[in-house]
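URGENT: need a sanity check before tomorrow's submission.

F., can you look over the Dihydroorotase record below? I want to be sure the sequence and structure line up before it goes out.
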Amino acid sequence: MPMPTDTASAQTITLRRPDDWHVHLRDGAMLAAVVPWTARQFARAIVMPNLSLPVTTAEMASAYRERILAALPPGAAFTPLMTCYLTDATDPTGLRAGFAEGVFTAAKLYPAHATTNAAQGVTDVALIRPALKAMEEIGMPLLVHGEVTDPAVDVFDREAVFIERVMTGLVRDYPGLKIVFEHITTADAVGFVDGCGPLVAATITPQHLHINRNAMFAGGLRPHAYCLPVAKREVHRLALRSAATSGSPKYFLGTDSAPHARGAKEADCGCAGIFNAPYALESYAAVFEEEGALGLLEGFASEHGPRFYGLPLNEGQIVLERGDNLVPAELDAGQTRIVPFHAGQTLGWRVREAR
Ligand code: DOR
Ligand code: ZN
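Structure tokens as predicted:
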């Protein structure tokens, strides 16, 4: 897609319509409240399967897909791409059938207890060998929440230790498996992904490009800056910004937008997750502009993901225009309210139209 050559002074940016390669859409009233935000910007999204009753079968994924489609605003052109939640008991035959039928696009590996609704996740990757073998054979991507859950490991080291203890072995033992290292947060992960072949890629969220771990403690405890994997030191944020704006096809957009009601975050034991869907593209555009790389935003947002997944590029376009975009302090979500990422801040781009 042609970009203005002088992107630094451009007043509008027209991009091929982007996709979100990692999103939590939830269910019920929350789904109805949040899916319009994602559908407004993105043509497709990889939908995470960590509902309170995890999406572990093709039947469940089909039914969830129907609920998502039913919750879309009239006329929305949005395709949810469904994922299978892997457990110790995942049946490789069901995975193969779900992928062959086009119900599953990928499968998600949550280490057991790593995050929200991950209690039924995988306790040891050795137990899902048949599933991983099948996925390698049929070209079904494995999406990885890359954190160890060993309580002896410092929370800020869980991704780096996961690389040593799990990722390295996965890449070695399944050389033909497509792997997406989801929502990477460290320079270690960037180094790992860069050092692997083309079958290993990563998504990067807006929040990990904007904030470091100090944001959680700025003048007090800030629950709306808390997600998992947790933001790390500044050196890691800078490594992520370099990776995202490098033009490498290994890195693509995945918001990890993870809505929780305000009260569920502002609590004794607040939930992990940042709701960034409403201003996602504007948030990424700010980063690419700050890095002098607006010309590389389209690859990251709209091209690298589909190429990795082997899906067609979108035909539509989205137009961003320069201008103050004040993010509200909170948004209505049915009977509840959600605090969005960048609440109270003014972003410098806004979505004018998607077509
Ligand atoms: O912060 C997060 N929230 N990280 C995850 O891995 C899950 C997500 C959620 O579902 O709330
Ligand atoms: Zn997620």
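My own read: Residues 24, 50, 115-116, 145, 227-228, 258, 272-273 surround DOR (ligand 1) (CB under 6 Å). The longest helix spans residues 158-173. If you see anything odd, call me.
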